[in-house]
Amino acid sequence: MSWLNPKPIRQKLQFGLSLVAVGLMLALLLHWCQAPLLTVQALQPLPQHPLIQVYSNHNPAHTYREPYRAQTRPGDNLEQIIVDSIRGAQSTVDLAVQEFRSPLIAQALRDRSQAGVKIRLVIENTYSRPWSRVTAAEAQQMDSRQKSRYRENTRLIDRNADGILSAEEINQNDALVVIERAAIPWIDDRADGSAGSGLMHHKFVVIDGQQVIVTSANFTMSDLHGDFSPKQSLGNANSLVKLQSPAIAQLFSEEFNLMWGDGPGGATDSRFGVRKPFRPAQTVAVGDATVQVKFSPTSAEIPWELSSNGLIGQTLGTGRKRIDMALFVFSDQHIVNALEAVAQKGAAIRVLIEPTFAFQYFSEALDMLGVALPVRTKAIAPVEDPVPDASAPLQNRHNPCRTEADNHPWRNPMTSVGVPQLPPGDLLHHKFGLVDQHTVITGSHNWTEAADRNNDEAVLVIDHPTVAAHYEREYERLWATSRLGLPSEVQTATAAFRQSCSALSAGSTRPSAAPSPSTRINLNTATQAELEQLPGVGPKLAQRMIAAREKEPFRSLADVDRVPGVGKKLLQEISDRITW
Fold it and tell me: CA 393 to CA 395: how far, in whole Å?
């Protein structure tokens, strides 16, 4: 009786189980394919230097569970690295950061303060107000960009997403309120008695006089993890370096103490910007690595070679084989001139710049691509949202063919200049260069004159192949999907510029006449001299305007009003004289 034979029954059961297994595998495969974020590590982690660790919030070799949107995503959790370091503090934590909105970092500082650790905080005055204290009426008056920032930050505080900020949510999740309630002392860059420095742009933490964290990231959702909207956002591309070195910690403590003075409520003895004394770059041995540290700004009275940008230029000048750069903005003429000399000696150079700034008239990407745009050209749309401006590029009524002073398009243009492709809403916020796969330039310092001469910044030059390997991997990740060369709208603009100005000799910098009252000055492109021609605008205020637009371009009068030192009265005087 064959139906009693167990062999066919076992075969059918095995076949059925095989079908189930295949079905489960297909279901899992389908799930992985449909997942919005990478869940499988594509690369093996790189070895770390024992005293200098490098992390990136887009690191393809790691994943983490992001705490605010409860999603698994690729990258290093920069926020958690900072939190864990603070939690290990035994005596002191000094933290200087331009914008501080991280609830978890604030809570870690609160907890260590309650445990007896001495905490001090320095921030930029533009970001010194808790978001939960912005009224509905104030929010209604915001421009679209500020409203977006307001929505993002209130959503960060509103953890149950009911649209209401409860007292408990504010006390736990509005970072500045957490700091305030914990009685942690803090100051901003008005503590020197001024309306604020160029920008207090630092992003560093010193712990117990032994450990230093330096990052390109502000302590915000945008810079650490990504915005709530769009959902694909994974955060502006940033890196973080953690150094175990009492000597490095001492240098950063000295910088912090200059800004701190005697702290809040005391004399106006804090020193920010060019009020700080000049200090040349310092070289420190960290194990078998060499680290140079330079703080900005450097007064214009001191030679460029001794400034932070001078250190960057000198370091790039040592390149023999390859130089890679990933930059938020690049507008220092001296640095690009140094790069040209390196290129002429045969070094391969690759450059990626944040699309918002890559092809503006002041960007050195244009020099490297062998083209120029006139000063005060209307801002050309970022390449991720190309909307050609029909009125560009001839906006300067007095001399439409005037380029920047000392502008120098390369005679042998590069083809390896472009922009990265990042998730929607994210920016290339890096400020690093990599020389011959051995030396790294990093820190908070953008490669601009404003950062060099006005802002509070830090530059690190680290010489070690293990450290460099982490930046090389990050660069290759960005480079793999980058777009090279001039976008079509920039090609159109430069062709029109050449055609319209063919009668003028190459490199003409004929000065323009002073603007008449009917001529509007573009705040996003004006030189400092042009800004100073506005009523009530002196050199310091002009510098602050330039520093503000480097963070985010002006788009409304509300943006101008937020510049320290402007005020309602001055805004009324200049409102009919400015544009953007």
Answer: 6
Burial of 576 (C-beta count, 10 Å sphere; 0-12/13-18/19+)? exposed
Distances (CA, A) of 544 to 165, 378, 488, 564, 567: 34, 21, 33, 7, 13
Tell me how far apart the alpha carbons of residues 538 and 534 are, in angstroms, rounded to a whole number: 8
Structure tokens at 408: 């120098």
Strands annotated E in 426-547: 431-435, 439-443, 457-463, 483-484, 521-522
Q: Which of 126, 107, 101 lies closest to 225 in space, CA to CA?
A: 101
**Residues 296-340: tens digit of each pLDDT:** 999 999 999 999 999 999 999 999 999 999 999 999 999 999 999
The alpha carbon of residue 79 and the mean position of all alpha carbons in its chain are separated, in whole angstroms, by 15
CB 428 within 8 A of CB 383: no
Three-class secondary structure assignment of 61-80: CCEEEECCCCEEEECCCHHH
Q: What is the 8-class DSSP label of residue 306?
A: G
Residue 50 tokens, joined: 């024992």
Give the neighbor-by-neighbor strand order of the sheet with 282-286.
Answer: 282-286, 289-296, 457-463, 439-443, 431-435, 322-327, 348-353, 417-419, 483-484
The 8-class DSSP code of residue 2 comes to: G
Task: List, for residues 137-172, the tens digit of each pLDDT value.
Answer: 999 999 888 999 999 999 999 999 999 999 999 999
Average pLDDT, the chain: 86
Cβ-based neighbours of 303, under 8 Å, separated by 6 or more: 310
Q: Apex CA 53: angle with CA 52 and CA 59, to 5°?
A: 150
CA atoms within 13 A on the CB side of 21: 6
Burial class (CB in 10 A: 0-12, 13-18, 19+), 298: buried
Q: What is the pLDDT of residues 37-63, one digit of tens each?
A: 444 446 899 999 999 999 999 999 999
Q: Are the CB atoms for 270 and 463 separated by under 8 Å?
A: no
Rounded to 10 degrees, the C-alpha dihedral 317/321/324/330 comes to: 30
> Rounded to whole angstroms, how far apart are CA atoms 538 and 540?
6
Which residues on adjacent β-strands are paired with residue 188? 123
The H or E element containing residue 470 is: helix 465-479
**Range with the poorest average pLDDT among 7-11, 97-101, 203-207:** 7-11
SS3 at position 169: helix
Query: How many residues belong to the chain?
Result: 580
The H or E element containing residue 418 is: strand 417-419
Sequence letter at residue 345: K
**Element counts in the chain: helices (H) and strands (E):** 20, 20
Residue type, 318: T
Three-state DSSP class for residue 456: strand
Spatial neighbors of 506 by CB under 8 A, at least 6 apart, are none
Residue 291: C-alpha distances to residues 335, 413, 460, 491, 574 (Å): 20, 33, 7, 41, 46
Cβ neighbour number for residue 98 with a 10 Å cutoff? 24
